Amino acid sequence: CVKREGLVALELGSGNGFLSVCLLALNASFKKSHPGEPPLIEKLVVTDMVDHISLIEKTLHVNSHVWEEMYVRNLAESGSGDGENEGGAINSYFGTLGNDDTPNASDCDCDRGNDDTTTCKKVTVIAAEHRWGEQEIESIREEESKTR
Fold first, then answer.
1. Exposure string (b/e) for 105-133, b if CB count within 10 Å is 16 or more?
2. pLDDT tens by residue, 96-135
3. Bridge partners, residue 127, by sequence
4. DSSP character at residue 104
């Protein structure tokens, strides 16, 4: 089975997810105009602070024509996310990109023995909170409070 060849991209601090939709639209356009070639982007990870995740989810959901799979991990929905127990609700969606001219995702699974993966590349979006550097910020705040 041939492995996917598209890029994995990361958008930090997405806000409402609009730039991601634009990037995915470009990817979808390329996919339509270059049949048989892998997409430019195989997976897009969209991140922001937890209070933006539902907005990103809504923006991407209403633009389901530019992706095939979307997974949203929202720690706010679980009341978890303390670093020790990552928890969080994971919502799964299946978009409409390629419904007319590409096989169903189930027909494209390498594990099922289909070796023709060139035409079966799925575009997956993952939206999740980034908590990058929170510990460093807290330690800086603690140091600042000691010096006052």
1. eeebeeeeeeeebebbbbbbbbbbbbeee
2. 765 544 444 444 444 444 444 444 567 899 998 887 665 5
3. 46, 72
4. -
Sheet with 7-11, side-by-side order of all strands: 7-11, 41-48, 124-129, 69-74, 89-94
The model's pTM is 0.67
What is the C-alpha separation between 129 and 72, in angstroms, rounded?
9
Tell me the pLDDT tens digit for each residue of 76-98: 655 544 444 455 678 888 887 65
Instruction: Supply 78's token pair.
Output: 């679980």
28 backbone dihedrals φ, ψ, rounded to 5°: -65, -40
CA distance 141 to 148: 11
